[in-house]
Amino acid sequence: LPALAALLPPLPGPGGPCPAEVGLGALPAELRAAVRALVGDLDSLFSALALREESFAVGALSRVVAAELASYAPARNRRRTATNKASVIFVDRTLDLAGAVGHHGDNLAEKILSVLPKLPGHKTDVMVNMVELTALKTTDETCSIIAPGCLAQPNDPAAKALWESFMNLKQKEAVMEARRYLVEAASRENLPIKMSMGRVTPEQLGSYIQLFRNNLKALENHCGLLQLVLATVQTLKHPQTSKWDNFLAFERLLLQTIGESEMPSVLNQLLPMIKSYNERTKDDYACEDFLVLLVYIYSVVGEIKYGRELDTAEEEVKKALVKAICDEPEPSPLLQKIT
Question: Which BP terms does GO give this entry (predicted)?
Answer without folding.
Answer: vesicle-mediated transport
